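Researcher: Go.
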Amino acid sequence: MSSQSFDLIVIGAGPGGYVCAFRAAQLGLKVALVEKRATLGGTCLNVGCIPSKALLHSSEQFVFAKSHAAAHGIKLSGVELDLATLLKKKDDVVTKLVGGVAQLAKARKITVITGAAAFTSPTTLSVGDQTITAKNIVIATGSAPVELPFMKFDCETVVSSDHAISFPTVPKKLVVVGGGAIGLELGSVWARLGADVTVVEFLPKIIATYDDDIVRAFTRILQKQGLKIEVGAKVTGYANGILTAERGTEKLSFPADKVLVAVGRRPFTDSLNLAAAGVQLDEKKRVKVDAHLKTNVPGIWALGDVVAGPMLAHKAEEDGVAVAEWIAQKAGHVNWDLIPAIVYTDPEVASIGLGEDAAKAAGLAINVGKFNFAANGRALANDATDGFVKIIADAKTDKILGAQIVGKGAGELISEIVTHMEYGGSAEDLARTVHAHPTMSEAVKEAALAVAKRALHAM
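Model: Structure:
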């Protein structure tokens, strides 16, 4: 049994883990990166963020060619779906990216070890027939889809997002259990490709963390695209091609040849043997950490989806950089209050900070500015008039407290609001920032102007 020693071992090569390893290597540490998959990149690159975005993009092109090209004077005949090629395109994107991460790891002289790691002591891990030790070990093992106990994944009919990115044929009737980002994104993909899609959500609204006005507009848009949205419905089971649910005393049934269960994700620490290291978990089975992502055991750190906070790749990346810097005794920093969230449908939905509903519920005095994309010249030219930008500011200081956007490219547009919020900027700061014309981003400027009731292109 071979044995190696390192300054730092990172368990898990998703965005949090590999970024932590890369930053630590930049800072001169001898680093090992342990990954159970044959490829690096974790859930995000292999079966999550990246393949789903490739499918979203390809399916958007299909819908444009089939339904919208003619209005632009582009005459196409016999538009057909070649699903095998579409899926191969997605796989090619994944292959390129995971290969790129491997090249970067090699260039940084990081030792990549393939296999499942398990603690044998606070400083020692076993990976297959290898024993590796380090003064510092980072747990970055990510998350796994939540399974409904009465409706287990069979990887064929009842599936998680891992399998819903690779259906070999378009389902006739797809029921998506869960109206969050993952369910709506993959539901949108298959609806565009021809599936009859129904989304069944337990809560009173889809994307439940967003403001009611955003959700109302978004729901209408999705329904116009053909998705059926059922809220306030508790799923009770699936048998003989029928998914059953209840809404109060009402019994509901939905025919389905595929059921995508997308009710959330859980921290994945199953095979780590944390007991051997003495690492504590919290009540939600997340690794318990302090404000510097240290566990209760000196030298063991945790980040990303296995700790409290939003399960988002960009949050994990920031955690990874900070942990590497703290280990190297540098000044790492993460502003966990400013982690943007995005639903990558078409149009997208994005948010940062405090929503209007939450601010009012907390009794805060706020001013709100809204601007519709229908009044934006670039949006009109781009067939992107659905939705609006909303900015929430403190009524007294004008400091931006949050923002929510439903619209084309919302995920890109939210970034400049995050930037202004990072330095404590005001709505006026954002409003007085010069925005190029014509751009979708002018809607952000106008929403900031609207906070003080002085939008220029709205009544």
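Model: Residues 176 and 260 are 5 Å apart (CA to CA).
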